[in-house]
Design brief:
The protein is mainly alpha-helical. It has 4 helices and no strands. This is Antifreeze protein.
């Protein structure tokens, strides 16, 4: 027996607010993983700090361009979600 009915599951999977909450949780994990890497010091820490700043500037510029060209907030959030997931995967390996 499934814990949720199909209607509830579909609502959760396609609800932008739910997606945003999952992004926030994953972002916290990325912050924690980056903090550990930077606290370790050395070349890896320096490279990660530079990469973090560069990614944030690029992401803000990309989001601004998307919004200026008429993209919805949901599409912009999806781009951020992919980047957050990629960073989590890279940092946890």
């Amino acid at each position: 027996m499934r814990p949720f009915s199909w209607a509830v599951w579909r609502f959760l999977m396609f609800n932008p607010w739910f997606d945003l909450c999952l992004s926030a949780l994953e972002a916290q994990q990325v912050i924690w993983l980056r903090t550990l890497r930077i606290a370790g010091g050395g070349k890896f820490a320096e490279r990660e700090a530079k990469r973090m700043v560069l990614e944030k500037v690029e992401a803000a510029g990309h989001a601004g361009m998307m919004l200026a060209s008429g993209a919805s907030a949901v599409k912009v959030a999806a781009v951020y979600r992919r980047k957050i997931s990629a960073n989590k995967k890279r940092l946890s390996s």
